[in-house]
TrEMBL record:
It is an enzyme of class 7 (translocase). Belongs to the complex I 23 kDa subunit family. The keyword RNA-binding does not apply. Its main location: membrane. The keyword Cell membrane applies. One of its GO terms (molecular function) is oxidoreductase activity. Its EC number is 7.1.1.-. The gene is nuoI. It comes from Streptomyces meridianus. This is NADH-quinone oxidoreductase subunit I. The lineage of its organism: Bacteria, Bacillati, Actinomycetota, Actinomycetes, Kitasatosporales.
Length: 217
């Protein structure tokens, strides 16, 4: 147009008033109720079943529920889980049964927090927490390792590896018959992780010489 205005746009006929009108919008917004959350000072509680960071759970005596079966990894649509299973031994036992998850990683650069892995887990080893602060500044730090995902120790638990509760078998753990670590339970040495031998490491279990000592207590 010869006067510099844009057809159909009334503001374009008053080019000097345009910026002032823009400040008017800002001025009006200053008195409106704020819509933004006061994060991180105020963290809004999530819904109880919110899908947040995963957790690898333990049995009540501290042994791990994960059996290294990889079903969670196969169920994941984003290929975000990496699992390597290994055999338990009487000298180094992480879970009550034959196998345990030796390596467990979840890549939160890929994970879409859909929960399909939780549905696939046969032992309820894998669940999701309400933690949602998963941002970080490097790719490596967003690949969570087993040590980061493993649940903390609660009252009555002893950190894995340690021997199975004397007189109990794997099924008894899933029947809920083991409610805490047996008296005298001590953490074993983790030879596979290169730990130095510990003085007085646990050596009891149904087929182990010190089991009588523990049962008598
Ligand atoms: S929540 Fe979904 S995307 Fe994330 S690891 Fe589990 S199955 Fe994969
Ligand atoms: S978390 Fe569950 S599904 Fe995944 S490897 Fe462990 S036991 Fe299997």
């Amino acid at each position: 147009m010869p006067d510099g205005s844009i057809p159909g746009n009334e503001n374009s006929r008053t080019p000097l008033l345009g910026p002032v009108a823009g400040f008017g919008v800002t001025f009006k917004a200053m008195f409106k109720k704020r819509l933004t959350e006061q994060y991180p000072e105020y963290k809004k509680p999530t819904a109880p079943r919110f899908h947040g960071r995963h957790q690898l759970n333990r049995h009540p005596d501290g042994l791990e529920k994960c059996i290294g079966c990889e079903l969670c990894a196969w169920a994941c649509p984003a290929d975000a889980i990496y699992v390597e299973g290994a055999d338990n031994t009487d000298e180094e036992r992480y879970s009550p049964g034959e196998r345990y998850g030796r390596v467990y990683q979840i890549n939160y650069l890929r994970c879409i927090l859909c929960g399909l892995c939780v549905e696939a887990c046969p032992t309820r080893a894998l669940t999701m927490t309400n933690e949602y602060e998963l941002a970080d500044s490097s790719r490596e730090s967003l690949i969570y390792t087993k040590e980061e995902l493993l649940a903390g120790l609660e009252e009555g638990m002893v950190d894995s590896p340690h021997a199975i509760f004397p007189g109990m078998d794997e099924q008894d753990y899933y029947r809920g018959l083991v409610t805490e670590a047996a008296p005298g339970t001590e953490r074993q040495t983790a030879v596979s992780k290169g730990e130095a031998p510990q003085e007085g490491a646990s050596d009891f279990g149904p087929n182990e010489p010190a089991s009588e000592r523990v049962i008598k207590k």
